[in-house]
Amino acid sequence: MELPPRVFLDVPKTASPLPSPGGGMQAWINSNGFTVLTVPYHADPKKDNWEWFNKAKKGLREDQFRREVLIDFTARGGQKVFPYLTQNPGKYFVKPRGEVPKNHYIVGGLDFGSRNPSAILLGSVNERGHIHVFAEFYKPSNPAEISRYLKNHPYFHRLQKIAADPSMWNKNQHQLAEQYNIITSIADMLNDMGIYQMERANNDRLSGLERIKYLFRYSSEKPDLDPYLTISEECVNLRKELEELVYKEETPEQLTNKNESEDTVKRRDHAYDGLKYLCLSCSVPSDMLTRPVAHEFSLRSIEDQMDLDYEHDSFDDLII
User: What is the pTM (predicted TM-score) of this model?
Assistant: First the structure.
């Protein structure tokens, strides 16, 4: 039978209550010219029930279950990096907070892509170093589009720095370098367009991952800990990437000679990279004040403290 590259042979919705890939069976011709047909497990009447379905799911990670039982080839392999984000999303993904307070400073993270999405994240940092990511830009773009987005953003005038992928300073990164023999980089072009806050980010993958874990402050023993990092619900692409991020999967043979990988799968992680750059550009937060509040050392506060000390000094203290 002649088939297009891939077709879905849909099972009627009433055929089974159980989930199935693409609505039912799938058929396609592979690169060797063979016709391949996938049939969901519940085509077998003995397996067309929730009892079998739940039994098959037991002991499998979500990604394993989707690939091996639901025949979902799009499921990402590996253990989830941040499983707690889907278990308690309201703790980490919060409703928009409105205007950023004046005493918070604003930083950005940028991962550039022309074919893949460019990801720009903007975050506010309070006196304790706690970070709230409140805006994202996410689409394939060029330097001019990035410049327009940043300059048109209402908080551009308060943006102190943009931690960007160090490869953006490579002189061969932009197509103009090849087309017109211009020695330039994406960072140079953005600087020429008036984006002066750019700085090379720390691109260490494991350091970035550990910093984000620290900021989320997940602990099964202390579930009431408040995170140092929150993300606006409006940052939908960042949320999706974080929830789907998985560790690299090693085969049993590979694990005989080395420890399990701590690195993540490098796929669909553009906003995640931007978040790493942003977080590593900030000081490590705490529950203590990392910098004074705006009014603490003002002239008025110093005079008030002197007046207070004078009122409590005894007559002997005033005699020199």
Answer: 0.68
